[in-house]
Amino acid sequence: MIFSLGQRWVSDTETELGLGTITEIDLRMVTLAFPATGEKRRYAKQGSPITRVLFHPGDLIQHQEGWSLQVNDVVEENHLISYIGTRTDTEKNTAVIRETFLNSKLTFRHPKNRLFSGQIDNITHFALRFRALTHQSKQLRFLSQGLRGVRASLIPHQLHIAHEIGQRHAPRVLLADEVGLGKTIEAGMILYQQLLSGRAERVLIVVPESLQHQWLVEMLRRFNLHFSLFDKNRYSESACDGMNPFETEQWVICSLDLIKEKETLLKDLVNADWDLLIVDEAHHLSWSEKNASPEYQAIEQLADRVPGILFLTATPEQLGEESHFARLRLLDKNRFYDYNTFVDEQKNYRLIAEVVTLILERKPLATEKIKQLTDFLTQTVDQTDLGPLLRLIHELGENFQKNKKTDRLKEEDQTQAQKFIDFMIDCHGTSRVLFRNTRNSIKGFKKRKLHAIKLPFPSQYQTCIQALNTATSIQDKLYLERAYQKQADKEDWFHFDPRVTWLINFLLEYRDKKVLVICAHPRTALELEYILRTAQGIRSAVFHEGLSLIERDRAAAYFSLIEKGAQVLLCSEIGSEGRNFQFSHDLVLFDLPLHPDLLEQRIGRLDRIGQKNDIDIFVPYLENSAQSILLRWYHEGLNALEKSCCVGHKLYTSFEQRLKKYLSAPDESEGFDQLIEECQKQAKAITLELEQGRDRLLELHSSGGESGEKYAQAILKQNNDVDLIELAMNLFDIIGIHQEDQSEHMMLLIPSDHMLFPDFPGLSPEGNLITFDRETALVREDAQFLSWEHPIIRNGIDLILSSEIGSCSVAFLKNKTLPVGTLLIELIYVVEVQAKKSLQLARFLPPTPIRMLLDKKGNNLANQVAFEKMNAMLNKVDRHTAHQCIRAVQKEVQNILELSKSIITKEADALIESAKKEADNELSCELNRLKALKMMNPNIRDDEIASLEKSRDHTLNHISQAVFRLDAIRLILVTHE
Ligand SMILES: Nc1ncnc2c1ncn2[C@@H]1O[C@H](COP(=O)(O)OP(=O)(O)OP(=O)(O)O)[C@@H](O)[C@H]1O
Fold first, then answer.
1. Is the separation of the CB atoms in 858 and 899 below 8 Å?
2. Where in the chain is the domain with CATH 3.40.50.10810?
3. Helicase ATP-binding domain: which residues (predicted)?
4. CA distances from 142 to 135, 137, 787 (A)
């Protein structure tokens, strides 16, 4: 296809944009401007979902000035089309419309014209069209858009977070759920909603190099999103002709290592106009006043330009609270401007958490508490809001007191209480930017059991330490095999280290177990693997940061194979970050890391969603070694091995110096019991304080209480949805896609030789294995999970509705109670709004079909005879007879169409009014809430309010301008035979 400036094209997936004009062409991309909605889109020249708009003699088209032309002739010059024909307003004049001047709001292929020119469709096509319209309209209003098509279990806290953030304009948040609770899935759900709603189009995901493929695969298999991975080669291959390589793709994954290394690449990234940036393992962005890491600086440049940001980390405070604060500042500079103010603010959390907890537990607020709260609110809340708030607190207190005995609240009190809680949570702290769920607040996690294995300290290590003497660092003491190699320059440590013998025996004894072994250093992992494989023939794989990505993925895949896979995977410290190994439940910590957050990351490889067994953690350690000290500290001081420890960083900071003293001289353990005791006490106190303060608030707003459950239930109802299955089968039959049953819940879709649309998007020539059942989709990853949101369904419906298929039909109705030849006309009007997708008007007014069944006098019988009932009674008519019938009743049809106009105007007006009311209610309510919050919570950004205000005004304005059009027409003639 040759592209030329001024040509008119339409987007196959976004027909609501109207007619587009080519405004820019370069080597690989074309830009289309859509004047009807004021939007622009860039498409790759090859393979993009756009179609050239061409009309033919007989078509009725419209000039941008509003007049229409009946096309008689079509002329092409310099790749641009001119339509020659008769103006319908003046009847006589011959006129020309160059395609550039076509009306951008043009609706094509009027069904009436098709009817009178004899272009008749099969009655089954008409039925499919109506069903597709009806379902599309219903589904576009579904509450949990973008959440139901994900191949994942319905986990309430994830759905709540995704819903809460996915609906925002340019969300900027930190997802900090504990390790393995599903941050990747949450980020994917947010991203998917932003894409579906048109709020985001260009997306960049930045991850540690080792996780690139995992993200690529997760986005594809769970969300059907095909990302492009940019490594060094891909970048330099695309960097030709002065083009920005990142502009050739809409969705890109890139590694943090690459970004910080290559200055030109970062520059290109920053200039590539992303809508949404996702950064995984964001704790790598370390910052201090004197030293911002290169990673931090790189992401800072992007954060200045990209409107939406999601940071993901399970251990936000791993590199210190200052770094945590600095990351929050990347999300919102205005709000997080000063570290000390931030720390001060955190002190208020306790009071708010206490009050919220009392209300949740329906306990009356003591006078003292009310006073404290009043003082606090007086300082922070605007005077106009203060009165009602205080009244509410008193009333709630009194009502709780009155209803104490029944333990039940009246519904309005319940609503009031929830409103107050939402308000308090919304207003304070980091709630709009930080989300954190913990294992405490989510049920179903398996237990962890520690098996500490004490082993003798080998003399070789003793000699080595003595030889190193004062030069022995804590690292040497902790990782003795490395110190030994340094000092003795020998590699035979594995011959005498009893941990190795223990590991070999353990693996030989439990041949059927899949065991993950983690150690601090890649070289240790490599040497262990060598000895296991060569000396003992144990099937093993190794996984460390020195391997290429392909080698790492290969190792992980080898380990995951059930039969003939590796029995053991040996990982270095960061080699396994973010990886999913929950199919194993035996973890060997060959050594322990110094920082508790690293320990949590290690255990998190197995202790994550999807783990079906209790987890056994084996720690072989050498008696009286630094590791034995560290083990006691972790187990007895922090209880970090058998329970997830959320206070690790704080305790490490507080005990670091004293702990290191013992680690450097493990023999001198005097006073260590005392340290453990202090540590336990402090752990208890900090945990309590957090549970009563910051963490309680975070938990309340992150888990979402009942809201996540509500979304899960709504989505669950759509599993194996009969409407969806019926429509899909109908669609596949008509399009020409064969269906072969494979098992109870699975089916193979195979393209036939007679496809209605030869290039059906998403359908592979070899066929697609599909299922409508979520549970099947979760275990059978080779099957695609079909929901209303799956591209096969969405594209299928779009293909039908953006074409003429089924828009014009003729049928016979055998009915002896009516005179032969009685004419009924079934009309399908569609009321619709043309506006930017990102306004999401479909929530209030999706393209809505209005069906009429009119007799000669214009009486509407649609309510008496429902569509499916009528459809079942109809018989098809051969083309020749249909043409004769049309000619015979043409005049009557014209009359009935005229009569239908007043009916549709009335019905459309009512629909538009009710949509406006709904939109106004919802958006004004949200706006008022944000404005009220803004008074006391600077977390609400000005641009969020401005955007919502603008979007409400635009929404109402666009809904008022909604139009109706005739989408389909069916003539029904009564026969007696
Ligand atoms: N809703 C879900 N349905 C099915 N599996 C899930 C779901 N949520 C998470 N999982 C699985 O649980 C594991 C952990 O999820 P994920 O990787 O998103 O967690 P994470 O919080 O990003 O972990 P980490 O902190 O290690 O980066 C993954 O194997 C993921 O596939």
1. yes
2. 156-346
3. 164-334
4. 11, 9, 13
Task: Please list the residue range(s) of the chain that carry CATH number 3.30.360.80.
Answer: 719-787
Residue 111 has pLDDT above 80, yes or no: yes
Our separate counts of H helices and E strands in the chain read 34, 31
Q: How many Å apart are CA 853 and CA 900, to the nearest integer?
A: 10
> pLDDT digits over 7-41, tens only?
998 775 666 677 899 999 988 889 999 988 888 99
What angle is formed at CA 311 by the lines to CA 214 and CA 154, rounded to 5 degrees? 60
The residues that bridge with 207 in the sheet, in sequence order, are 255
β-pair type (568-571, 515-518): parallel
* Cβ-proximal residues to 100 (8 Å cutoff; 6+ apart), any chain: 6, 8, 21, 80
Closest C-alpha residue for ligand 1 atom 26: 578
Q: Which of the four pLDDT bands, split at 50, 70 and 90, describes residue 99?
A: very high
| Whether residue 181 has its Cβ less than 6 Å from ligand 1 | yes
- The encoded tokens of residue 98 equal 């160059």
CA of 181 to the centre of ligand 1 (A): 6
pLDDT of 97 > 90? The answer is yes
List all residues 6 or more positions away from 515 whose beta carbon is below 8 Å from its beta carbon. 506, 507, 567, 568, 569, 584, 586, 587, 588
Percent of the chain exceeding pLDDT 70 equals: 89
Q: What DSSP assignment string belongs to 751-763?
A: E-TT-SSSS-TT-
Q: How far away, in angstroms, is 221 Cα from ligand 1 center?
A: 13
Q: What's the CATH architecture for 719-787?
A: 2-Layer Sandwich (3.30)
pLDDT digits 0-9 by tens, 515-567: 999 999 999 999 999 999 887 789 999 988 787 767 877 888 888 887 788 99
Tell whether the model's pLDDT for residue 818 goes beyond 60. yes
- pTM for the whole structure: 0.73
CA nearest ligand 1 atom 4, residue: 152
Tell which CATH architecture fits domain 8-108. Answer: Roll (2.30)
| Residue ranges matching CATH 2.30.30.930 in the chain | 8-108
> Which CATH number does the domain 448-639 belong to among 1.10.40.50, 3.90.1230.10, 3.40.50.2300, 3.40.50.300?
3.40.50.300
pLDDT score recorded for residue 537:
83
Closest listed residue to residue 386, CA positions, set 334, 432, 427:
427
Cβ burial, residue 849 (10 Å; 0-12/13-18/19+):
buried
Q: Which CATH class is domain 156-346?
A: alpha beta
Q: Residue 10 — φ and ψ, nearest 5°? A: -130, 145
Query: What is the spatial distance between Cα 9 and Cα 6, in angstroms, rounded to a whole number?
Result: 9
Sheet holding 874-876, edge to edge: 848-854, 823-832, 963-975, 808-814, 874-876
- Distance (angstroms) between ligand 1 centre and the Cα of 169 equals 25
